[in-house]
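Issue 218. Parser rejects a valid record. Input:
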Amino acid sequence: MPRFEPFAGLRYDPATVGGPDLSRVVAPPYDVIDPPQREALAGRSPWNAVRVELPEGGPDPYREAARLLSDWVDRGVLRTDTRPGFYLYRMSFTDHAGQARTTRGVIGALEVSRPGEGDVLLHERTTPKAKTDRLELLRACRTNTSPVWGLSLAGGLSAHCQGDGAPAATATDDQGVLHELWVVSDLERIGAIASSVGSAPVVIADGHHRYETALAYSEERRVDRSGAPGDYDLVMALVVELTEDELAVGPIHRLLTGLPEGLDLEGALRARFDLEPAPIRAADPPDPPTLARLLTGAGAPALVTAERSWYLLAHPETATRAGDDLDTARLDVALGDLPGGEVSFHHDPAVVLGAVAGGQADAAVLVRPPSVAAIASAARERRRMPPKTTFFTPKPRTGMVWRPVTD
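Output the parser choked on:
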């Protein structure tokens, strides 16, 4: 079963940054930050975490990130906790259906292992993506700057994730999500959390590339140190119980661009789907709750072009070939048969429909998210879902706690 250990975190000193509210100094994970947002975050504070998470400046931005991190420690902006502990983490938010929700978990150090060799499982097949950036940052800073997100199959973990008293740190992000963090240093509670997480497999739900980078770094350091173990054998992870109460799962929609001129897209897709007219217009996108109701009612994803839209009802052969009862699996079969074009991804339906309406894309396919039960079933069977099947939201903030990675 997976190792899950406490660590002595590196955290912002409230006396230096203006109190326990860290809203000005935290940032989203690196892979959801675009250049304008990075500039805005960096402008909020000279100590905003984005300056390390997505470094800029000089011939070697990673060395600059390491210099900044060291400088913040020297100046007391960041301080290392005096003893190892776990960090309870809670996110309070309103979901796409307008319901008040909370996600509770615990941040600790989770083992890294090669796929198939341990009980940390990958949730999705990953799309090709350079990992050099994250590896260079880890080499330079020797710090896990943002947690990967793991889902535990251990029933009852949520009961160990209740924060007592006032949180040690809070932050409200640009979407209005309240992030709260508590430090657990009591040995009995630390043992109970470690035992709970260690009693069942953990599925990496978000941060696959960071997890794979941590594995590459672990193997690299073990070669350099003649196989000796170290902090590099683990990665900072937020672990949440895999249950409906704790998770808000959204879809990741598809954008089709660069299709061959003159391609009859609807005709090509009829080989895999029955097409039924859908009341969705690219120029007048429905809000997320309305879209979710439409797709759920139809029991199918929807293809949208600038002129019209259809629900895509899979043929039996398509469903069989897909192997999974998922919109994304069936679309992978159909889109893989198209003669050219590119597929890109975005979780916001307004963005993908806006691209179609504005002529930046040929079409969009709006999909339904998998249920938590489907995610749990795949995890227990150690199956990996198709790439870009789930969008777990909200995202934990970079900077609530950092994890030094030493030898």
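Fixed in the parser; the record now loads. The radius of gyration is 22 Å.
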